C-alpha cells in the first residue's frame, strides 16, 4: 500500500464521478463472489438485516431484498441513489434523518431497502441499529487508505453478535496505478479488523481484464473474506 498510503479523495470527487457518469465501478449484475458465498453469510437465517457501505446503485441490494432480507445502504451521491430506485422500478419515499443534519434517507415503498445519503462516518448504530450481514464490495477498497482504522472501527460497531461480514478486496501492483480501487492485502485486513474479528479467506480469483489493463495494470486478484465477531469479544459484552 506504500505507493497509495497518502492518496486522498474528497467526497465531492465521488459525487462528481456520479454526475459525470464515471461509474466504471458499478456492476450491472449480482456479484459472483456474493452469490458464491451467500450461504456462508445467511447460515440458514431468515430476514437478515444487511448493511451495504458506500452502496452506489448495487443491484445486489434488490437481489437480497427479493429473498426476504432487508437492506440498509449508505451513499453520498443522491444521483446514484435515485438511479438505483429508477433502474429497479421501485417506488420510494425521501425523508430527512433527524440524527444526521443535512442527511436524507430514501426508503422503498415496501420498507425492504433504505439508503442513507450522507457521509459514511456520520452514520452509526444509533441511526439504524446493528446488522446481521454486511456486504462490502467497493467500499473498503474505495476509502482513503489513511481512514481505514476509522472505517474498520465503524463497521465493527455495526455488527450484531451473529453478524457475518463478507469483505471483497483487490490486490495488484500499486506502483502501476494510484487507485481507487486501492490495494487491500490480507495483512491489511488483519491489521484493521483482526483485533475484533476472526477472519477467513473464502475465495481468491483472477479478476484481471481489459478495464484494468487499460489503466496500466498487468494483473489483479480479487479476494473475499468472511469476518465474524471474536467469541472472546462476545463474552465481554
From TrEMBL:
Keyword Transferase: yes
Swiss-Prot/TrEMBL keywords: Cytoplasm, Methyltransferase, S-adenosyl-L-methionine, Transferase
Cellular compartments annotated: Cytoplasm
UniProt-listed SUPFAM superfamilies: S-adenosyl-L-methionine-dependent methyltransferases
Gene Ontology cellular-component annotations: cytoplasm
UniProt xrefs under InterPro entries: SAM-dependent_MTases_sf, Thiopurine_S-MeTrfase, TPMT
One Pfam entry name: TPMT
EC number per UniProt: 2.1.1.67
Catalyzed reaction equations: S-adenosyl-L-methionine + a thiopurine = S-adenosyl-L-homocysteine + a thiopurine S-methylether
GO molecular function: thiopurine S-methyltransferase activity
Any single GO BP term: methylation
Family label: Belongs to the class I-like SAM-binding methyltransferase superfamily. TPMT family.
Protein name in UniProt: thiopurine S-methyltransferase
Amino acid at each position: 500500500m506504500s505507493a497509495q498510503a497518502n492518496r486522498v479523495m474528497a467526497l465531492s470527487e465521488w459525487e462528481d464521478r456520479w454526475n459525470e457518469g464515471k461509474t466504471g465501478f458499478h456492476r450491472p449484475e449480482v456479484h459472483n463472489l456474493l452469490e458464491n458465498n451467500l450461504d456462508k453469510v445467511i447460515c440458514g437465517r431468515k430476514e437478515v438485516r444487511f448493511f451495504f457501505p458506500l452502496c452506489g446503485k448495487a443491484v445486489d441490494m434488490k437481489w437480497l431484498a427479493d429473498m426476504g432480507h432487508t437492506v440498509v445502504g449508505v451513499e453520498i451521491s443522491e444521483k446514484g441513489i435515485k438511479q438505483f430506485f429508477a433502474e429497479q422500478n421501485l417506488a420510494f419515499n425521501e425523508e430527512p434523518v433527524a440524527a444526521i443534519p443535512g442527511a436524507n434517507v430514501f426508503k422503498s415503498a415496501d420498507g425492504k431497502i433504505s439508503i442513507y445519503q450522507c457521509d459514511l462516518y456520520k452514520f452509526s448504530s444509533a441511526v439504524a441499529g446493528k446488522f446481521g450481514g454486511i456486504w462490502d464490495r467497493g467500499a473498503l477498497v474505495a476509502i482513503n487508505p489513511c481512514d481505514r482504522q476509522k472505517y474498520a472501527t465503524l463497521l465493527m460497531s455495526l455488527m450484531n453478535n451473529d453478524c457475518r461480514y463478507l469483505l471483497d478486496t483487490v490486490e495488484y501492483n500499486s506502483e502501476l496505478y494510484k487507485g481507487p480501487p486501492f490495494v487491500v492485502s490480507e495483512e491489511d485486513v488483519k491489521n484493521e479488523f483482526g483485533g475484533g474479528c476472526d477472519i477467513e479467506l473464502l475465495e481468491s480469483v483472477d479478476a484481471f481484464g481489459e478495464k484494468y489493463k487499460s489503466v496500466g495494470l498487468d494483473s489483479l486478484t480479487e479476494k473475499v473474506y468472511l469476518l465474524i465477531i471474536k467469541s472472546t469479544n462476545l463474552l465481554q459484552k
